[in-house]
Amino acid sequence: MRKYFFAVAAVLAVVFNITSARAEVNAQAARKFVEDVTKDGIENIIDANVSQQEKDARFAKLFNDALDMKFIGQFVLGRYWRTATPAQREAFINAYRELNVKTWSKRFDEFKGRNFVFGGTTPSSSANQIFVNSTVPMEQGEPAKVVWRVKQNGDSFKIVDIIIENVSLAITARNEYTAYIKNNAGGVEALIKDLQKKTTDAPKKKA
Questions:
Q1: Residue 91, Cβ neighbours under 10 Å: how many?
Q2: Predicted pLDDT at 206
Q3: Does an H or E element contain 114, and which?
Q4: Which letter does DSSP use for residue 115 in this model?
């Protein structure tokens, strides 16, 4: 019996080690993924000699390709994700995506003439995730610290959060939206309409 116990324990240890190895995030590949995303944004959007309409279209594609919007949307909606209907979940993700695309497309030119300087990576306590560290030189003062939270799924990578100067964009949105739902009788439906209105009302960027 004792021999059998140790034999089973040995097998489980081997299986666990194999599983852990498979689940480990490829830090080098995650960093290269973020480097390629920022390079693509700078070369093909910010510095590209194309119309603003084309820049907006390229940014929307880059945004949708690089970010895991379903994962982010579920996190941002917090506990209200569980009570939202499938239609509300889809509508929220679409509204959140459209608002962010419009907001960040206008702000993207702020990075003109600047390049991200990448450092190492930091492990995450969340499964299949890792932090990719970078800085952005500023005109005055110290470089701004930008940390990218990346999730690996098989051989592919997606950004699930961006932390700028220790402020998480995902957590900030989550706090704002859950407070809105809590204090609004319309709940998730009201939040969706509010995001849609903000997208519609957002001023267009000048060409």
A1: 19
A2: 52
A3: none
A4: -
- Type of residue at 177: Y
Residue 133, C-beta contacts closer than 8 angstroms, at least 6 positions apart: 118, 119, 120, 121, 122, 145, 147
Angle between helices 187-201 and 86-107 (to 10 degrees): 30
Tell which CATH architecture fits domain 25-201: Roll (3.10)
What's this model's pTM, rounded to 2 decimal places? 0.82
Tokens 């849609």 belong to: 196
Q: What residue segments make up the domains of the chain, in order of their start?
A: 25-201
- Tell me the C-alpha distance between 163 and 149, whole Å: 8
- HEC profile of 6-66: HHHHHHHHHHHHHHHHHHCCCHHHHHHHHHHHHHHHHHHHHCCCCCHHHHHHHHHHHHHHH
Please report the pLDDT score of residue 179 as a whole number: 96
What is the rounded distance in angstroms from the CA atom of residue 172 to the CA atom of residue 35?
24
pLDDT tens across 10-42, in order?
333 333 333 333 358 999 999 999 999 999 988
Is residue 68 classed as helix, strand or coil in its secondary structure?
coil
Mean pLDDT of the chain: 85
